[in-house]
Design goal:
The protein is an alpha+beta fold. The protein has one domain. The chain is about 40% helix and about 20% strand. The protein is built from five helices and four strands. β3 and β4 form a beta hairpin. The radius of gyration is 20 Å and the shape is globular. About 15% of the residues have low confidence.
């Protein structure tokens, strides 16, 4: 009897943590974006994207997650590359590129995912991650004395 009870208890103690780990969202493996970074995407062309220190661009942001600079990079990309859309309106109506991943940014990302990136079903979640990053259009800048000058929007294959 004791052997059966011990075996059953062992099975439960190993199965429960496994069930919890397998139910975590996939983006949890990446970590939250905690910075932004200029990335060279061509001859004298740069984009600013959210990153995670030590993990590159494999990071995610969701409601109330992400550093201010990482969130601003995403919000500015939506404002500049998806102008005159509900996504840009959601950003503007919630304070502009303020660095807060609030309900306005969630709604903006969800709109871009559904209406510009072709995401469907559970993929339209308002969470920024590698799939959203690689499908989005990003502002492309050229360096000038003292900063960067916005040129156009596109989806660089290098990011």
């Amino acid at each position: 009897m004791r052997r059966g009870l011990f075996a059953g208890l062992t099975l439960i103690l190993t199965a429960v943590p496994l069930a919890v780990l397998t139910s975590l969202p996939a983006q949890a493996a990446y970590g939250v974006c905690n910075a932004d970074q200029w990335r060279n995407v061509g001859t004298n062309e740069y984009v600013k994207v959210p990153v995670r220190t030590g993990n590159g661009m494999s990071c995610y942001m969701g409601y109330q997650q992400g550093s201010n600079t990482a969130v601003v990079a995403l919000q500015q990309a939506i404002e500049l590359c998806y102008p005159n859309t509900p996504a840009a309106d959601y950003i503007e109506e919630s304070g502009g590129a303020d660095g807060v991943y609030g309900t306005g940014t969630v709604k903006a990302v969800r709109w871009v995912q559904a209406n510009r990136l072709g995401f469907e079903g559970n993929d339209v979640d308002g969470v920024y991650g590698p799939a959203t990053r690689s499908a989005m259009r990003w502002p492309v800048y050229r360096p000038i004395s003292g900063g960067y000058l916005f040129q156009s929007c596109r989806n660089p294959t290098q990011i």
